[in-house]
Amino acid sequence: MSDFYPLISQWYRRNHRILPWRLTEDPYKIWLSEIIMQQTRVDQGLAYYNKFVEHYPEVSDLAAADEQEVLRLWQGLGYYSRARNLCFAAQQVVDEFDGIFPSRFEDIKSLKGVGDYTASAIASFAFQLPHAVVDGNAFRVLSRYFNDDTPIDTGQGMKVFKAYADEVLSVENPAESNQAIMELGAMVCKPKNPDCENCPLNGTCLSLKEGDPKTLPVKSKKIKVTKRYFHFLIFPSANVQLEKREGKGIWMNMYQFPMIELKEKKLKSEVSAIVKSEYDLDLGTKIFAEKHILTHQHIYATFWKVNKPVEKEGLIESNLVGLDQYPLPRLIERFLENYSEVFSD
């Protein structure tokens, strides 16, 4: 156990990826990177991190930004509540901490959208505080190293693996210790094909000695998935009709084509009757259909032509060029990338 940190730190110094947030101790930039990288691949997240640092070099710049502008910059990254939380938390830093990013763990955790994991990451990476970071990669390394099949998605699992993480954490160098275990999980101790032969811990990993690393970690719960059926109504014209999604839920404060949502799959004739009843429109040909997968929801989206503009309170119109000023969900953005010719004179 005593050689856990020396082994992974030596491996990390030789093999880690050079990423901009690892080259700074600025808590604001580290916070940005942690929020952006949640549920995001490094190659995708890197481009967004660079955009945000360029647009908002200081936390005060982000605090003063318009939420719609931030959502537009976030467009395509998904999980848009993260972007809204960024705005709120930046304003907290300005209002509650005089514009100086907090350095105490409890204060960091008080920021909107920041939980134990993110607060631990910022505390250790920016301030060298001895807080163990337990993300998906760390869960995987620790469950395999200790050959522990306690489900990681339970309260007991959180306690068990947090204790393991604290046990192997280097209190003298918590930043490198946390980075090393997460990088090992990302590059070597992978979910499906762990590279045990080249793992620096292969001499003491209990699951490699006593079991099968690929069976760990264990989860006890299956995610309940809700099916939703979106029918977007498009009148072919140079003017694109948009509506703003209000209230809580996916894509809040973002823009989409006018649509109706149904609770179950319907035949075209049934959809046509509903559209006729609600908007006095004739449903035309189907332009495109796609299953859009989110963590807890599967959206079955169909884009239909209709015979005239939709009449509905709150609709706005824009030409294609003007759409750049509106934050759009990735589903709508992808439609425009492939079917923008629908909106022509």
TrEMBL record:
Matches recorded under NCBIfam families: mutY
* Protein name (Swiss-Prot/TrEMBL): Adenine DNA glycosylase
Reactions accelerated catalytically: Hydrolyzes free adenine bases from 7,8-dihydro-8-oxoguanine:adenine mismatched double-stranded DNA, leaving an apurinic site
Q: Look up keyword 4Fe-4S and say if it applies.
A: yes
Which InterPro entries does the UniProt record give? A/G_AdeGlyc_MutY, DNA_glycosylase, Endonuclease3_FeS-loop_motif, HhH-GPD_domain, HhH_base_excis_C, HhH_motif, MIG/MutY, MutY_C
Provide the organism lineage as a comma list: Bacteria, Pseudomonadati, Bacteroidota, Flavobacteriia, Flavobacteriales
Q: Give the co-factor note.
A: Binds 1 [4Fe-4S] cluster.
Highest taxon in the source lineage: Bacteria
Name one matching Pfam family: NUDIX_4
**Gene Ontology molecular functions:** 4 iron, 4 sulfur cluster binding; 8-oxo-7,8-dihydroguanine DNA N-glycosylase activity; adenine/guanine mispair binding; metal ion binding; oxidized purine DNA binding; purine-specific mismatch base pair DNA N-glycosylase activity
Q: What does this protein do?
A: Adenine glycosylase active on G-A mispairs. MutY also corrects error-prone DNA synthesis past GO lesions which are due to the oxidatively damaged form of guanine: 7,8-dihydro-8-oxoguanine (8-oxo-dGTP).
